[in-house]
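Assemble and predict.
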Amino acid sequence: MSTRLQSSGRLLNKNNPVSFTFNGKKLRGYEGDTLASALLANDQLLVGRSFKYHRPRGVVASGAEEPNGLVNLGRDGHFEPNQRVTTQELFDGLEATSQNHFPTLEFDVGAINTHLSRFLPAGFYYKMFIYPRPFWKHVYEPFIRKSAGLGKAPKDRDADTYEHFHAYVDVLIVGGGIAGLTAALAAGRAGAQVLLIEQTAHWGGRAMVDQPEIDGMSAEAWVAQTLAELNGMANVQTRTRMMGSGVYDHGFAMAYERLGDHGPHDGPRHRLWKIRAKQIVTATGAIERPLSFAANDLPGVLLASAVRDYALNYGVSVGDRTVVVTNNDDAYRTAIALKEAGLEVPAIIDARTEATGQLPEAARALGIRVETGKGVATVKGGKRVTGVAICAQAGEGSVLEEIGCDCVAMSGGWSPVVHLWSHCGGKLKWDDEQAMFRPDPKRPPMNQNGIGFVSTAGVANGFLSTEGALTDAFAAGETAAKLAGAKGKADKAPMGADAAEQPISPVWLMPQGASYKLRSKAWLDFQNDVKVSDVQLAAQEGFESVEHAKRYTTLGMATDQGKLSNINGLAILSKSLDSEIPNVGTTTFRPPYTPISMSSIAGVAQNELFQPLRKTPVSDWSNDNGADNEPVGAWRRAFAYVRSGESVHDAVNREVKNTRENLGLLDASTLGKLIVKGPDAGKFLDMMYTNMMSNLKVGKCRYGLMCTENGFLMDDGVVARIDEDTWLCHTTTGGAERIHGWMEDWLQCEWWDWKVYVANVTEQFAQIAVVGPNARKVLEKLGGMDVSKEALPFMEWRDGKIGEFDARAYRISFSGELSYEIAVPASQGRAFWDALTEAGEEFGVMPYGTECLHILRAEKGFIMIGDETDGTVIPQDLNLQWALSKKKDDYLGKRAHERSHMADPNRWKLVGLETLDGSVLPDGAYAIAEGTNENGQRNTQGRVTSTYYSANLGRGIAMGLVHNGPNRMGEVISFTNIGGEPIRTKIVDPVVYDKDGEKQNV
Amino acid sequence: MLILRCPYCGVDVDETDLHGGGEAHLKRFGPGSTDDEFHDYLFMRENPKGVHFERWQHSYGCGKWFLAARCTATLEVFGTYPAQTTEPPKEVVEAIKAKRPNWEVL
């Protein structure tokens, strides 16, 4: 059983015991424990069930690479699934529950899958669930969804806060082991601005466990001294609990700082750092590889380094009797550490034919039995290890002997953590001697100057010895500082010394000729349940690319992203393909290094800070007066002004009738207003608009259309000529910034010699539409400029005073009523609105919203950009040929309209639509045509673009695009109606109200 | 996240402050052009793996469009220059050739 040792545990504060719960059971640990070490100290070896076969699983690792130890953490607003027990620091009151089991962790009915594993091989989803077709949606998928997945999604809103930091440094160093510290020392002494980050709470990395000698002192003493020196430098910042999560183009890096995961906290829980570094040094160490032998997934089989970490860092023995299985010298350190802690090591099983290095000899000297040329045929046990069956590594798995044990410490060698190096394109090379991929310093990720901006240091760079790592890391820090522009001297590199090691002998399968039975129990990916046999099957079935094999088998696709499994998996793949490992290559490393919280990505961008809202001078009044808002770009516009006792629909109908009968006010301030000015402004607008703007007379207005170079409608609006070289262009509400940018693009990049200046004055003016039969009366009551028919005719504008306000009055109408749009300086907008509201009382004034605006324009057959247009509609489709100038040689879209499919007579064209029963057509409904297409779907001959209930007409009104529509007036066609009978609809003129325009010409 | 120097402001700008505008140095074809010419102008782009001329706007800065010569494979930037030109300036061409001797102006 696993238990707490009395004598060791360098990270523990045994004076501060803490209590926590696991699956509701109250357990105790110490400050300094991780959740993993505390669970092991309480003999909680079983921590979860595997993804596919629901096999019992225990902790395998001691760090970020842990695949099995995933738990739900916390509750309510602090609940989070899939948290790794190995990186979760223990604190008093921590609550964890295990995942992926039913009904309980100890007894899981899904475990039957392990006996069905012959029927659940790689790609079984694709093979088993194809036929019959409808079963996928209704039977297979719901079942798979239910049995798949790991943790539960949180139900409550996240109660914590999060934030982003931006940092600019010369040298970012990721990893606070001895290599990272050394690199920081060199870069710091050279005078560079350095940020050194470490993902755990502790400095020194693995050296603190293995305690090599550095500069004549213990690693512990050297780390303390180095840290003190670094913290004494004003140009060096050090931070723990901060993971380098990703490296991106041109020296951009992301780091994830966990401020509140180790206990109660004030302030943000996580902080996402966006770092711009001139140089990045990744001193990210290495991850030990598991060995692929049968039943290597049983609880109690751990990485050799993890067994050592638990013993020395946390004072936890995973078992009383540990068998070490290895192909390298490093694992002997585990055997020696355990023996020295007073635990039993019945045997070291070394796959190599001989082991005569310093460490093996030291192990033998302690009386440990060392078996060379041997391997594990299978691990014995059910929910935990009870023993190992030993065989010859060179053979097929005939059992020579069984050794009783309750822990197996395995080591297949070490893989440098090259993730950050690779994120932005750093290439790897295969090191045959050390059996690992390591960074190829000749092919780094490049910065904007064509110089590599990432280097790796120490173990991460393939230098596994202390001496090699320190020398390499010092050089990396020195070089990075120099490349970043630092001029100082780095001084001398620290010297390290540790036991000389003999070479590793790569072992990708144990024993090398393992039978199918053994291979189908030899796990590669613990979290996604991928075995040696699955990868071999994928290769056999033709998934030869490592990326294809990955997706077919799901190898490396779990939340650990294959930190333990990828190298072993691709070695198996390369063997199956009879190819070399470097030829097969690795899958792509993508950020983040380990999962980061979604909330940290959001940062403070939630609620009112999610997106800044734009307000008009009238917005506050609207919100105080029943506005039911709708988003229009970043604006919130009143859809309708709802009075007490009314529904929104009632309010719309009231506004529609009142505006036609009395007086309506619309806050039109959001309309885009662009001033286009200069000697060439007229020529420029003639290019921008399809119709002629240069010949517009001063004082007059003209409705204009804008097309893209593709010929598709992009915006419309009224243009007014202000003086000889000044025009004011109204755009749609959503189009102001876009059209401004569009004009700038053409002026800067195509016609840069034209003398034109464009200014977006949208927010400088409040604009209020005064609409209805009483519009003139209310303006005359306020007094000031002459707004009579004679003084201010339709489609003209005047500057002057209205009441006490400086106003520009445009006599334009989007409703078909007598209408003035009056612009006043934004600062006077609210006062002007109030004056109109007060003066209009005797004329029946009511504000109206965007829905009323839509209905009024639809009654008049006026198009709306975004309703009648969708990026595929040309002016000709909307019968707007009159607005396409024939006099102009060129305008944007003109050439496109000559293309064959633009001139095609079969394009759908705008018509009005009148249902025979007066009902309102569904928005977007299709007009049904005869027959079916090649996919068996009904043919269509048109679609609805705008549809409303018109209170003025007492029935539904609509517009739509219909094949040959304008030539089919009076014809009755049918429109789709989901869940009901098709709707019989007559094709009519789009203008259904005041066809002769008598109401606006008064 | 790229860094490009705005040739107007002279500052190194993060990509988040920029707006990309596709391939640079396109020749506009309007009325009077053939269908093929117009089609190519609208749709056909080089999309090279290697040296590429691009349009960028310093949208959260001065608002100006500028052009950049950049390697799409290594992300190396050879130079940025104002948009008011129909071809890359001599010094940019030289900077490219210094790093990519086999590269030829199309």
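Chain A has six domains: 3-119, 162-287+416-490, 290-410, 522-587, 608-857, 858-988.
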